[in-house]
Structure formats: structure tokens, C-alpha cells
Amino acid sequence: MQLSDLKQQGHIWCLNDAPPAQQALAPTGFAELDLLLGGGWPTQQVIELRTAFGIGEFRLLLPYLQQQARLGKLQAYINTPAQLHAPFLSSQGLPLWQLLDVRAQDRDALWAAEQCLKSGCCSTVLLWQHALDIARLKRLQLAAAEGQAELFLLRPAGQAQLSLPVGLSLALSPADQGIEVRVLKRRGGWPGARQLVNFSARWPRLIKQHVQRPAQYGPAPVHDTAAVAI
Questions:
Q1: How many percent of the chain have pLDDT more than 70?
Q2: pLDDT tens per residue, range 78-102
Q3: Quick check: is 48 in a domain?
Q4: How far apart are CA 30 and CA 27, in angstroms?
């Protein structure tokens, strides 16, 4: 009997043939990232981003945050690694009255994230957190579902950390034209896929410029400002 016959009779199946889980997705604002993620950011979920600070991780989220700002709800920023820059946020279409800047110790930060998520007042919560156990993660997932909000959990890259049971986990790394995104875990999809998210259309001045110069003038200087995060 041929392999195709066995598949046709339902005796064997392939993972790619499995029907995708029903999950609401929201556009990221980048077509190439939507393609990588199968449609966009999963809503009412905890989304893990493994990233170094200042490589463009905030700009990756910015189009989505701009969309969410139109809902009129609050956005909570908990333990940002640098002070929020109000003029920049305002210039990017994020009303300052909608933004909460929270500073707290680790345990209190997790409590604050949970309260913001389940309150129903916040559309999005961004939490910079090094350590997180599975029990606390489950509480945050339940809170996100209850309050119909998303939690972006930003954790340091390159460290041995507990793999969390999240629906989406991404590793971010800097690139000349923007930021490279690698899938660590995605519900209904394979890990390991990579995609360059190009920032040149939105922020052309932040992209590395490789200028050709006559040899007598020496190598061209490199202007690397593509990594401003907040």
C-alpha cells in the first residue's frame, strides 16, 4: 500500500495537515511580520520577546500600540529599562494621558501587570521582567483573557532561562535594515523560522547608511541609530 493511500484512509497524518487552532490575531503593522506569525499578534495572550535592550524592539511594537491607542484604553509600561520619552511617544501618536509608567520590584511588578491586565482598563501591557515562573505566567494569561488585553513580556536574550508555556515566543536581534525576528515557539506553527522586519519605510533616518567614498578619503563612517528603543 502506498503512503498516499494510508493518508487518504486516515491511518496516518502530517502535522502540516492539522487544522490551525482558532485564535484571534491582530495585524502587527509590518506585512513581513504578519506573514511570519500567520496573520499577526495573538490577542488576549502573553507574548514573550527575548531581546537585548535598545535594538529597535519598541519600534517593532509601535504600529500595534498606535492601533490600540485608538481604542481609548490605557497602555501600561512596567519597569522599562530607560525612562519613557514623552515628546517621542506623543509624536508617534500615543496620547500621553493613556500611558502608565510603573516602577516596582519584581514581585510587585508582576502583581501590577496582573491588575492592569484584568482591570479591563488597559489594552496592552509591556513588562520588562528577568525571572518568571510557570505558576505566575498562568495567572497573567488568565488575567489577559479576563481583561481582553495583551501582555508583551520582554526578557533578556542570550541567558539560560526557563522555557515558558506561552503561545508565542520570539527572539529579536539587530539588523542593518531593522530587526530580525526568529520564532522560538508559536502555537500551530514550527519554531526556527526567521524574518527581517525592515524599518526603512517607516524610519529611513534610523537605518545604517553605507556610503561609497573615494579610497583616498578612507572608509565611510557608519551611522547606526537603528537601535533606539524608547
A1: 77
A2: 999 999 999 999 999 999 999 999 9
A3: yes
A4: 8
